[in-house]
Amino acid sequence: MSESPVERSQDTVARGQCLCGAVRFEVHGPLRPVIYCHCTMCRRSGGHFDAATACAPAHLRLLSSGTLRWYQSSASARRGFCGTCGSQLFWEPAHGDHISIWAGTLDRPTGLKAAVHIFVADKGDYYDITDGLPQWPGDSPPEA
What we know:
1 helix, seven-stranded mixed sheet, Metal Binding Protein, Guanine Nucleotide Exchange Factor, Chain A, 144 residues, three-stranded antiparallel sheet, 35% strand, 10 strands, mainly beta, globular
C-alpha cells in the first residue's frame, strides 16, 4: 500500500526520510553546514564516519514517526533510527539545543556544504582525510 505524498509547505527548508519511508520529516528553519564526525560511537553505529547537519528542535516536524526509535548511546546523547529498516536519522544531545540530522537522509537538492571534520583522533585507520576541510582532534578546535 502506498501513501500519497505529503505536500511540501512553503516554509519547508528540507525533507527527508529513512530507507523504507516509514519515518518522514521536514525542517522548517535553517540547517547548519554538514559536520563529519569520526568518533568511535558514530563509526560503530553506522559502519563509517557520519555526515550530519542540524536544526533547532522546534524546526523539525515529524510527518510519520510510528517506527522511530531512540537509543540512549551515552549519558550526553541519544540516537534516533527507524525500527523497521534501521536507518540512522537523528542525534540529540541531552542539552537539547539542537538536533542533528544525518545528511544522507535528506531529499536532494540539499544546498548544504561540509564545514569540518571532528574527532579525527578517533578516525578509522583505513582511510585518509584529504578534502582540505579543517580537522579537529575532538569536538572543537584545539586550544591555542
